[in-house]
Write a structure and sequence with these properties.
This protein is of the alpha/beta class and 283 residues long. The protein has ten helices and eleven strands. The protein folds into two domains: 85 residues, Leucine Dehydrogenase, chain A, domain 1 (Rossmann fold); 123 residues, Rossmann fold (3-Layer(aba) Sandwich). The structure holds ligand L34.
Length: 283
């Protein structure tokens, strides 16, 4: 028997905590504000941004959305970020990725004030995560850690295998598991004996971006399986894990949808609250 790790339930618990704190700040005259920038027409990005906006509204966080056309120039985007960096109503700035090809992602991320970088993508915040001295949590990996904590899954001393080495998920996931004293292996497209390494995992995190990439033969009996993937296969949403065949081997597993995705949004809300507290000298 496996346990289904329910991202909807766990994200609701995180959001409830944030909501209460946001309300408490209001009594002190402090409003929490998030600006979300989306460039172009990517349908998946539109869904995620709309989910972020809904979460803000439900939690009493001011949300401003900037939906810019595909043709937006780098200068126009940089000008907007400069304005938001100086805007006292805005505590957090998020520029939804991926950006259209003609925009330099690195340049844009670097232009966000690190104190408003609620994605924790700016090199200053990445560096802070590396040394374990950080206030903004990288949203997706932090969401995974929150799920493990909620389910009482101990990381210390466990073999943790992360498949994927992106700056957004794989690398920071590695750091957060390491901070909790896990023994972490990062695998990627050039890894040899991938299945064998995965079979050694007590906690297996899949962040590859390929449907059904993790098959039952790659999973140890009783492993905890976290599926960060979010793919569309024949119009249906699915993760990186062959869920139907892997679930019975696992002791606990996250679904897609309703797993890590909602956690990413909950942790973004938490970061926006943290930014507001920091800007008002409360932490
Ligand atoms: N800047 N870009 C920036 N920050 C981020 O944190 C993200 N990410 C990733 C893509 N680009 C980003 C997100 O917001 C992925 N991501 C994200 C956010 C929310 C959901 C999935 C990915 C989500 O709400 N998932 C739902 C289903 C959504 C659907 O129906 O398509 C779920 O239950 O998994």
């Amino acid at each position: 028997m496996y346990k289904l790790i329910d991202g909807k339930v766990i994200s609701a618990a995180v959001k409830e905590r944030v909501k209460n704190e946001v309300a408490e700040l209001k009594t002190k005259g402090i409003t929490v504000g998030l600006a979300v920038i989306i460039v172009g027409e990517d349908p998946a990005s539109k869904v995620y941004v709309s989910n972020k906006k809904k979460a803000c509204e439900a939690l009493g966080i001011l949300s401003r959305e900037y939906a810019l056309p595909e043709s937006t120039t780098e200068d126009e985007l940089l000008n907007l970020i400069t304005k938001l960096n100086a805007d006292p109503e805005i505590n957090g700035i998020l520029c939804q990725l991926p950006l259209p090809k003609h925009l330099d992602e690195k340049l844009i991320i670097n232009s966000i004030d690190p104190e408003k970088d609620v994605d924790a993508f700016h090199p200053v915040n990445v560096g802070k995560i590396m040394i374990g001295d950080y206030y903004f949590l990288p949203c997706t990996p932090a969401g995974v850690m929150e799920m493990l904590k909620y389910e009482g899954i101990e990381v210390e001393g466990k073999n943790c295998v992360v498949i994927g080495r992106s700056n957004i998920v794989g690398k920071p996931m590695n750091m957060l598991l390491l901070h909790k004293n896990g023994t972490v292996t990062i695998c990627h497209s050039r890894t040899k004996n991938l299945a064998e390494i995965c079979r050694n995992a007590d906690i297996l995190v899949a962040a590859v971006g390929k449907p059904n990439f993790v098959t039952a033969d790659m999973v140890k009996d009783g492993a905890v399986v976290i599926d960060v993937g979010i793919n569309r296969l024949d119009g249906k949403l699915c993760g990186d894990v062959d869920f139907e065949n892997v679930k019975e081997k696992s002791s606990a597993i996250t679904p897609v949808p309703g797993g890590v995705g909602p956690m990413t949004i909950a942790m973004l809300m938490q970061n926006t609250l943290t930014a507001a507290k920091k800007h008002n000298g409360l932490i």
